[in-house]
Specification:
- The structure is a single chain.
- With 282 residues, this protein is an alpha/beta fold.
- Helices cover 40% and strands 18% of the residues.
- The protein has 9 helices and 11 strands.
- Helix 2 (61-73) runs parallel beside helix 3 (90-103) and helix 3 packs parallel to helix 4 (121-142).
């Protein structure tokens, strides 16, 4: 049976000390800590997902101990770290792997570039291959897997494009985070097709949802984050594909909808997911 946890990016108004017991009390089994340095000028802002996110830990060994101790005190596993590593930054990758080792995590996220003017996909692909070769070497040294996320606005926006990038590497060292919510923005493919293609590279799963809003006048519809139960992602189909392909790892929640207060969202989301997963995996 898969296990359910939360990526703390969705808990911007909770400190790590508040988040750990809140996750335990709601029934989650694991926590994926958000790891990055928040610029000092943003710390006076109101809490937000990608700005002054209070549930964020610095990439230091001191913070790694904090992450470990909080999770252990509340019976939570740390399957991985949600690190914000720019494509090509091997120095920060090594630091993140050291932090992962210290707190007991087995994998970290590493970045890939997005398309930008004046640079071709082929050049960005070649740059990413070179970067992942370095990540693979570090992963072998530290015993920490590097994960590439399927993410809109990047060169790995679909399962097949992500597979094209990672397929030359050892799946014990380089893996993939599947994210159907991101694929609802860009890169949608049949879930089972993509999961089968990824095969041993599928290492982790993020879940969130997206809906599209029609402009008041005619025009291009705009994607926006929505509650898990209300959007384009068909979780029955997704979870069936995961089960049929033998996935038994982590399902990590990233609810960016702001449809409910944080603590209420934690309880609602695990109830929704457990009902879906129990009916499919039982």
């Amino acid at each position: 049976m898969v296990k359910i946890g939360v990526f703390t990016v969705m808990l911007p108004d909770l400190t790590p000390e508040a988040a750990a017991p809140a996750l335990r009390d709601a029934g989650y089994e694991g926590v994926e800590w958000r790891i990055m340095t928040i610029p000092p000028e943003r710390r006076s802002e109101p809490p937000s997902f990608w700005g002054n996110n209070l549930c964020t830990l610095e990439p230091t060994l001191t913070e790694a101990k904090r992450a470990h101790d909080l999770a252990a005190a509340h019976g939570l596993a740390i399957p991985g770290l949600g690190t914000y590593i720019g494509a090509g930054d091997l120095s920060l990758t090594e630091t993140a792997m050291q932090v992962a080792q210290a707190c007991g995590a087995k994998q970290i996220r590493v970045g890939v570039p997005g398309m930008r003017p004046g640079v071709t996909y082929h050049d960005l692909f070649d740059q990413s291959v070179g970067f992942l070769q370095g990540v693979e070497d570090l992963a072998r040294r530290y015993g920490i897997k590097g994960l590439v996320e399927i993410h809109h606005h990047t060169i790995t926006c679909s399962a097949s494009l992500t597979h094209r990038l990672v397929s030359r590497f050892d799946p014990a060292l380089i893996g993939v985070i599947h994210d159907a919510g991101n694929m609802a923005h860009e890169g949608f493919e049949n879930y089972r097709l993509g999961i089968e293609l990824l095969g041993p590279y599928l290492a982790h799963v993020h879940v969130k949802n997206v809906r599209y809003r029609r402009p008041e006048t005619s025009g291009v519809w705009v994607g926006e984050w929505s509650p898990l139960e209300d959007g384009l992602v068909n979780f029955d189909v997704l979870f069936t594909a995961l089960k049929e392909t033998g996935y038994d790892g982590w399902i990590m929640v990233e609810d960016f909808s702001s449809a409910r207060p944080t603590r209420e969202a934690l309880h609602h989301n695990i109830g929704f997911l457990k009902e879906k997963l129990t009916s499919i995996y039982s």
